[in-house]
């Protein structure tokens, strides 16, 4: 859900500022929104007695799905 919804919401947020940002910065923000979850979430969950297995599962899942969504987002930006 994060890999599809967050880039779309970022696109909507960037749209009013597109002229000021330009296509490179706007596209960069959208691609950054389409990247998988950070390993920092796993580190924090382990350090603060959270659910490390769940954080690891989310990390692996978003990384796998991003193999499909990142090229799709990049193609849409072209």
Sequence stretches where pLDDT stays below 50 over 5 or more residues: none
Q: Find the count of extended strands (DSSP E, 2+ residues).
A: 0
The fraction of residues in strands falls at under 5%
Total domains: 1
* Largest sheet, strands/sense/barrel: none
Query: Helix count, per DSSP?
Result: 4
- Categorize the overall geometry: elongated
Proportion of helical residues = over 70%
Please give a structural write-up:
With 78 residues, this protein is mainly alpha-helical. The protein has one domain. The protein has helices at residues 2-14, 18-33, 39-47, 52-77. The chain is elongated. It starts with a helix and ends with a helix. The model has no long low-confidence stretch (mean pLDDT 90).
List its traits:
elongated, 78 residues, mainly alpha
How would the blueprint of this fold be written?
Elements: H1 2-14, H2 18-33, H3 39-47, H4 52-77
Helix pairs in contact: 1-2, 1-4, 3-4
Quick summary:
By secondary structure, the protein is mainly alpha-helical.
């Amino acid at each position: 859900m994060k890999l599809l919804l967050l880039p779309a919401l970022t696109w909507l947020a960037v749209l009013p500022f597109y002229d000021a940002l330009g296509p490179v910065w706007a596209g960069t923000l959208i691609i950054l929104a389409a990247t998988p979850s950070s390993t920092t979430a796993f580190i924090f969950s382990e350090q603060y007695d959270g659910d490390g297995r769940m954080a690891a599962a989310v990390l692996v899942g978003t990384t796998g799905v991003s193999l499909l969504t990142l090229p799709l987002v990049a193609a849409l930006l072209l």
